[in-house]
Amino acid sequence: MPGIENANPFAYVSTETIPQSPPPTAAKGVAGWLKTNLFATPRDTVLTIIVALILLWIVPPMLNWLFFDAVWTGDGREACLGEHVGACWAFVEAKFGQFMYGRYPAELRWRVDLTGFLLIAGLVPIAIPSVPYKRENAIYLLVVFPIIAFMLLTGWPFLEPVETSRWGGLLVTLVVAIVGIVVSFPLGILLALGRRSNLPIVKTMSVIFIEFWRGVPLITVLFMSSVMLPLFLPADVSFDKLLRALIGVALFSSAYMAEVIRGGLQAIPKGQYEAANAMALTYWQGMRLIILPQALKLVIPGIVNTFIGLFKDTSLVLIIGIFDLLGIVQQNFTDTNWISPATPATGLVFAAFIYFIFCFGMSRYSAFMEERLDTGHKR
Amino acid sequence: MAHTDGVADGTEDSGRASLIYDPKVRGVFFQAILIIVVAYLVYSGISNAAGNLARAGIASGFDFFGERAGFEIGQTLVHYTNDSTYFRAFLVGLLNTLMVSALGILFATIIGFIVGLARLSRNYLIRKLATVYVETLRNIPLLLQLLFWYKAVLAVLPNPRETGLEQGTTVLWTLNNRGLYIPRLIPEAGASAILVAAIIAIALWVVIGMWAGKRQMRTGQQFPTFLTGLAILVGLPLLTFFLTGMPFDVEFSALQGFNMSGGTVIRPEFIALLLGLSLYTASFIAEIVRAGILAVAKGQTEAAYALGLSPNHTSRLVIIPQAMRVIIPPLTSQYLNLTKNSSLAVAIGYPDLVAVFGGTVLNQTGQAVEVITITMLVYLTISLLTSAFMNWFNSRVALVER
């Protein structure tokens, strides 16, 4: 507007910008962090002090028990007896082979090691997104590896046979978990599709199957597979005990998997189904190429949670007398050579650590994949 | 042919006459195959089972329910001796399962809500502590946790003689490897009046709540329903207690010889199971609560503040009711999981339904089919009833959307 002078007519208004001052010392650095995160309000301060006191009360004794007072070497219970003795790691050291392989013959354990190596060789490249040949890799993991693993572990038909009753420890835990995962995933997809099918009988049967398995505890399923299943088979057919447990675990987790995948299918807009039809794709083509890739991507966290649940649930097989990791740890509590007050706690903490590594690793990996595959469906 | 919407009839094309391309015909055909396969499996299963049972000389049927059980059960809520019937044993197991599940649900909910809120706390220490709790407990199998509490914590407690108690001296409570000993209340004449008073108090609370709600709708004035109700619930039974002349005798426990006598004992199996179930499930509930609260849009908080609500009112009247809509469905499945997980009791010897009925009774009678079927049906029934109740509750809290 003309007529207005550049000079400020009001004397009390500053003509130049005041230079920025540094933030108050209480809002930056260590002091600022402490202020906002620990001592923001009087109530926060009180809570912080209480929690810090509780931590001081719990953590040092725990560290003492785990490390400083722990017995690291020894060959019998004498080493772990005494007034102020912490964890008895010597027990874990002495039993480590059993915890890993069970009663698998010591001179044949290389076969288990080799199987484990082959598994890792297939898993690592498929888990890293940038490594190529995903299709070949998947075929190796889902077709080639199971056959080789079966031949190596059981010894059938070329090597010296090892009965499954001699398997144990982490080996059994991993066998049950991996077979459960590999079987329950496709079965879960089929059940989920069945539950959303237009065919009334397919739908009804899927619903009954899913609701039945989800409604009963896994223990009763395992009891059923170990006690009742032999009754329903012809008298001359006998099943391996481990195989029966595997069937129970796989059917059980496939019901949970189905519900997770159904959630994904329901989240896909109807237009996608209609578009697949409009492109003249058959039902299976549409599912394979359009619907399932989107639906599965949506429910990756749920799928991994089911896997984690399945991995933890494998520990239940000890109740029907299969010595998985937890089963073999627990069995060794009764070893008279190692009975001491610290033995059960040590063995269980060790087993807990192994389970934790697997489960926590899976959950971190799923978080990573979720972030990577998040290609913008969020509103 | 009428056009059916859906995915199964992707190749619908009336131009092609061939029957094998007709989705209806295909549907009927595949379903018929499915029925035949399932029917064959069921038939062969039943006929095999009948043959196997006949060979083993086991008479099927439920007659065994009336027979004498002949075994002891460590913890019973109803009267039971080894002369009781198998049905009585079944009942004892069922009640034990229901009791530990109900208490587990209560504690898991309380701990879970506290930890879930703690994960959202401004306080760094509390937030991290809650995160460590959740990540540790939910990544370790429940069975391992139960065994830990039972074998590594409770079983290595000193025995009654080593706890430093003096012979014959009564104590308020003591914890040793036989369990937790607490005083026992022995009701005398007039004790039932207190129960009646408590029921009346709850009824009064409900009436006051309804009246306060109506009044607020009419006049806008609020009434401290919760505090009043709590005062009535505590005050009325307490008043009755004194008016009826304190009709309770308290029995304390004391060390007698090698063992404790008197008082009530809570067995280590029960403590371990309750601890394990509550702490484990709480870690899942905490995550559900956290997700539920985070799911409420930030604008809701800001809108509430803009309307002049206090932070307390904001969370109580705006945030929590909306978060509950997200929380309740997964919470239901956690409750169901807890109930089903209580069957792990069999691993530590707590006499629940699976341990008593699916374990001892099955071994004694050999009626595998009947026993396991009944056990599964019981859990199925509990699951379906809980689902139904929670669905009803959910439909009440769910807001009607546009």
TrEMBL record, chain A:
Q: Which CDD domains match?
A: TM_PBP2 (cd06261)
- One Pfam match, given by its short name, reads BPD_transp_1
Q: Which superkingdom heads the taxonomic lineage of this protein's source?
A: Bacteria
Q: GO molecular function terms here?
A: transmembrane transporter activity
Q: Name one GO cellular component term.
A: ATP-binding cassette (ABC) transporter complex
Q: Does the keyword section mention Transmembrane? A: yes
Outline the extent of the ABC transmembrane type-1 domain.
Answer: 170-361
| Keywords for the protein's UniProt record, in alphabetical order | Cell membrane, Membrane, Transmembrane, Transmembrane helix, Transport
Membrane topology according to the record: Multi-pass membrane protein
Matching entries from SUPFAM superfamilies are given as:
MetI-like
Chain segments annotated as transmembrane: 45-68, 114-131, 138-159, 171-194, 215-233, 298-323, 343-362
Principal location class: membrane
Its GO biological process terms? amino acid transport
Give the UniProt subcellular location, in the record's own words. Cell inner membrane; Cell membrane
Regarding protein family, the annotation reads:
Belongs to the binding-protein-dependent transport system permease family. HisMQ subfamily.
PANTHER family (UniProt xref)? INNER MEMBRANE AMINO-ACID ABC TRANSPORTER PERMEASE PROTEIN YHDY, MEMBRANE COMPONENT OF AMINO ACID ABC TRANSPORTER
The protein here is known as Amino acid ABC transporter permease
Automatic annotation (TrEMBL), chain B:
Q: Name one GO molecular function term.
A: transmembrane transporter activity
Alphabetically list the UniProt keywords.
Amino-acid transport, Cell membrane, Membrane, Transmembrane, Transmembrane helix, Transport
Query: Its principal location?
Result: membrane
Provide the Gene Ontology terms for cellular component: ATP-binding cassette (ABC) transporter complex
UniProt-listed Gene3D superfamilies = MetI-like
PROSITE patterns linked: ABC_TM1
UniProt entry tagged with the keyword Transmembrane helix: yes
Q: What's a GO biological-process term for it?
A: amino acid transport
Give the transmembrane region(s): 28-46, 89-118, 189-211, 223-243, 270-289, 344-362, 368-393
Occurrences of domain ABC transmembrane type-1 (ranges): 94-390
Report the subcellular localization. Cell inner membrane; Cell membrane
Q: Which InterPro entries match?
A: AA_ABC_transptr_permease_3TM, ArtM/GltK/GlnP/TcyL/YhdX-like, MetI-like, MetI-like_sf
Q: How does it sit in the membrane?
A: Multi-pass membrane protein
> Which protein family is it in?
Belongs to the binding-protein-dependent transport system permease family. HisMQ subfamily.
Among PANTHER family, the record links this protein to: AMINO-ACID ABC TRANSPORTER PERMEASE PROTEIN YHDX-RELATED, MEMBRANE COMPONENT OF AMINO ACID ABC TRANSPORTER
Q: What is this protein called?
A: Amino acid ABC transporter permease
Organism for this UniProt entry: Pseudohoeflea suaedae
